[in-house]
Design brief:
Elements: E1 6-10, H1 14-26, E2 30-34, H2 37-47, E3 54-58, H3 69-78, E4 86-90, E5 106-110, H4 115-127
Parallel strand pairs: 1-2, 1-3, 3-4, 4-5
């Protein structure tokens, strides 16, 4: 029996969060979804910080393009627990490199993206 990979989805837009959850579940992934870093933290306290095999997160998580809550959440996680691969979805072309990213698997995909491109990137990040 093949392992069912677990994805933690962190996306503040309810419609996109729902579509991605259904799409990824339809591809055989076990998905839990949160709309904010606070909701995500609550879920992970219950499930354990080692639960996800990959985190798929919006980079901004708010309407202000200068506030990158997804990146801040990654940094916060990394200072406390072992961090799984993080794949950031971005609505802007500006590339952000996380400080002291060494040892962490981090990927980026620009919105809008084709579902097939997202799946290829997820599979590649989990295969590393």
């Amino acid at each position: 029996m093949e392992k069912q990979y677990r994805i933690l989805l962190l996306e503040d837009e309810p419609l996109l969060r729902r579509v991605l959850t259904l799409s990824l579940a339809g591809q055989g992934y076990q998905v839990i979804a949160a709309g904010s870093p606070e909701d995500c933290e609550t879920m992970l306290r219950a499930l354990g910080w080692g639960w996800p095999d990959l985190v798929l997160s919006d980079a901004n998580l708010c309407r202000n393009p200068d506030i990158l809550l997804g990146y801040l959440f990654h940094t916060w996680w990394r200072t406390r627990f072992p961090v799984p691969p993080f794949l950031f979805m971005r609505g802007h072309a500006r590339f952000v490199r996380l400080p002291d990213e060494g040892g962490c698997r981090v990927g980026h995909i620009l919105k809008p993206f084709a579902p097939s491109d997202l799946l290829l990137l997820i599979r590649a990040m989990m295969a590393e």
